[in-house]
Amino acid sequence: MFDAKKIREDFPILKRKVNGKTLVYFDNAATTQKPVQVINAIRDYYENHNANIHRGVHQLSQEASQMYEDAHHVVGKLIGAKWDETIFTRNTTEGLNLVMYAWAMRKLKKGDEIISTVMEHHSNMVTWQFLKEMGIKLKFVGINDDGTLKMEDYDKLVTRSTKLITVVHASNVVGTINDVRKIGKIAHDNKALFVVDGAQSVPHMPVNVKKMDADFLAFSAHKMLGPTGMGALYGKRSLLQSMDPFMYGGDMIKQVTLEKSTWNDLPWKFEAGTPNICGGVAFAEAVKYLERLKMKNVRKHEEEITKYAMERMSEVDGLKIFGPGDYRNRGGVLSFNLGEIHPHDLATILDEFGVAVRSGQHCAAPLIHLLKAHATTRASFYVYNTKEEVDYFIDVLNKARKVFG
Predict the structure, then answer these.
(1) C-alpha distances in angstroms, 9 versus 54, 115, 203, 364?
(2) Distance CA 305, CA 4 (A)
(3) Is 231 exposed, middle or buried (0-12, 13-18, 19+ CB in 10 A)?
(4) Quick one: pLDDT at residue 204?
(5) Residues 118/144, Cβ–Cβ less than 8 Å
(6) Rounded to an integer, what distance in angstroms lies between the CA atom of residue 337 and that of residue 342?
(7) Which domain holds residue 9?
(8) Are 284 and 303 in a shared domain?
(9) pLDDT at res. 170
(10) 24-38: per-residue pLDDT in tens?
(11) β-pairing, 319-321 with 231-235?
C-alpha cells in the first residue's frame, strides 16, 4: 500500500528543522527532495565505479559505461520509449532547446508557423521566440477563466503553414492537465510535429509517449527525486536519425578525418563530450524508486492531497486559488493569493514556521499577467506530503492573514 508517512522515512532532509519548526516542503514543482536510495547511488558510483565511459577497456570504464547505458533503458521504459530514443540532457530546458536547434532551425523556413499556448513555462516559450529572427511566426492558444486551454483556438490558428505544435502537459502555475492526445492528433492531422513539455507530468502520473503520439517530450530528473543537472528528451527514432547533432565533439562521432566526420548511433549522437554519468545512474535509481511506488499510486496520492488542500484552503477568508476547480483535472500544484498580502511576504511568513513554498511568477510571466496577478504563492505536493502537513499549512495561513489584518 502507498503510505506517505512510511515513504518519508527515506528522505533525510524531511527531518530538518527550519526556524525551529519541522520542515514542511511544499515546493515540489520547483524541485523534489531525494530519497536515501538516490543519495546512496551517487555515493556508490563515486566510491566504486567512477571512470569515463565509452573510452576505456579497463574494468572501471566498462562498469561505468554499462551503468550509464542501463540508465537509458530504465528512464526510457518509464515513458514507454526505447533506450536509444532517450537522450540524456541537463534538464527540460536543454531538451526543448535541442529540438529547436537541431530540428526547427534546420528544417523550418520563413513563413512557417509554430503554435504554442499562453500557459507555457518560459522554457517552452522563449525557446521558440528565438526563431522569429528567421521569419517563423509564433501563435498562442488562449485560456478560459478556469485556467483550461481554449481548445477551439486550434481550429482558428492551424494553417497549412503550421509545422510544429507544442504544449505543456501539466501547468506549473494553474496545474491544468492538458489533453495531449487530442492536441497531438490535431498536430499530426495537419502534418505538424508535436512537442510536449513533460516537466510537471512525468514525475506525477503515468505517461506513455507512444499513446500520446508525441514526437518529442522533455522532462527533468530533479523534479522526480533525481539529481539536478539531469534530464531526458524522448524523440521518435526516425526524427532523431534525420537530425544533425546539437553539439559537436567527443563521443558523438563515429569516424573523424581532417575532411569530414560521421555521427555516432543514437542516443550518443546527441550526447557530446563527457556526460553527467553519475547523474544518469542516480536518475535511474529515482525512476526505480517511483516504479516501486507505481505511478498510478503517485497520481492517486496527489489527487487526494490536492483535493484535501483545496477544501481546507477554501476555509481561509480572502484566499483565491487559480486554475481548474476540479482536482481531477489538475496536478498537485496550487497557485493562490491571500487577500492583499504580497506573495513574497506570505512566503516569508510561511518560512518562519518551517513551510517552504514558492512565490513569484514561476517562470510563466505571460500567464501570470493573464491571471491579473503580479505574482502568486504556490504550494506543490509530492509523494511524501501528508494531510497533517496541509492542516499545519492552513493554520499558518490563518496566522498570516491575522498578521496583515
Answers:
(1) 37, 44, 20, 34
(2) 11
(3) buried
(4) 98
(5) no
(6) 8
(7) 4-30+294-403
(8) no
(9) 98
(10) 999 999 999 999 999
(11) unpaired
Mean pLDDT of 312-341: 97
Q: Considering only CA atoms, which of 122, 146, 141 is closest in space to residue 186?
A: 141
- Residue among 102, 230, 363, 400 flagged as catalytic: 363
Q: Are 359 and 22 in contact (CB under 8 A)?
A: no
Sequence-distant (≥ 6) Cβ neighbours of residue 71 within 8 angstroms: 88, 280, 281, 283, 284
Query: Is the separation of the CB atoms in 165 and 149 below 8 Å?
Result: no
Q: Shortest CA distance to 282 belongs to which of 204, 226, 223?
A: 226
Residue pLDDT, tens place only, 204-257? 999 999 999 999 999 999 999 999 999 999 999 999 999 999 899 999 999 999
CB 183 within 8 A of CB 167: yes
User: Is the pLDDT score of 47 beyond 80?
Assistant: yes
Q: Is 363 known to be catalytic? A: yes
Nearest to 245 by CA among 228, 229, 266: 266
130 and 12 belong to one structural domain: no
Question: Are 269 and 299 contained in the same domain?
Answer: no
CB 397 within 8 A of CB 343: no
Checking if the pLDDT of 1 tops 80, the result is no
**How many domains, the chain?**
2
**Same domain as 156, residue 92:** yes
Q: How far apart are CA 307 and CA 295, in angstroms?
A: 18
Q: Which of 210, 182, 178, 211 is nearest to 197 (CA)?
A: 178
Q: What is the pLDDT of residues 253-262, one digit of tens each?
A: 999 999 999 9
Global confidence as pTM: 0.96
* Contacting residues for 148 by C-beta, under 8 A, at least 6 apart: 176, 324, 329
CB atoms under 10 Å from CB of 279, counted, come to 23
Residues found in the chain: 405
